[in-house]
Write a structure and sequence with these properties.
Blueprint lengths: L8 H24 L2 H17 L7 H26 L14 H8 L2 H12 L4 H8 L3 H19 L1
Length: 155
């Protein structure tokens, strides 16, 4: 059987879960704007880790990458659904949504991801570029444009 076995790796997976779950949910929440969606995406990411446990050398890094890719896929699906069912899907934000999350939700995914990874995760340009599959200069441009858009909304 692949994945987590009875040789103590089950406890290791539980330890990774305890250490990383909330941090990853916060990251996914900032990228999706929905706590429920964030929790679902992170839980699915842990299931993927479970299935590949024997092959993964750095579980936290693997999970972070899987969560970010899941958030990207979530936004792709949402765009397709909004295009297909434009009159049925509302992008409205609830009144209790904080201003910053509302402003982040209006940004294109790559700008939002660059801002969250830069200012929330405190990642350098090179790591963000590797994850977003672009150049570091593109990351700087995404951050610059994202901040400019946020300033317009917030101020």
């Amino acid at each position: 059987m692949e994945g987590v076995g009875a040789d103590g790796s089950e406890q290791a997976l539980a330890d990774v879960y305890s250490a990383d779950f909330e941090r990853l949910v916060r990251l996914a929440y900032l990228l999706t704007g929905s706590r429920a969606t964030a929790e679902d995406l992170v839980q699915d990411s842990f299931l993927r880790l479970h299935d590949r446990w024997d092959d993964v050398r750095a579980p936290s890094a693997y999970l972070r990458t899987v969560v970010l890719n899941a958030c990207r896929a979530h936004h792709r699906r949402a765009r397709r659904e909004a295009a297909a069912f434009g009159d049925l899907v509302r992008d409205g934000v609830q009144p209790e949504t904080p201003v910053l999350l509302d402003a982040l939700a209006r940004l294109p995914y790559r700008q939002r991801a660059a801002l969250v990874l830069r200012f929330y995760e405190d990642w350098p340009d090179a790591e963000i570029a590797a994850l977003l599959r672009c150049r570091p200069a593109t990351v700087r441009s995404l951050v610059h444009r994202g901040l400019a858009a946020l300033r317009k909304v917030i101020t």
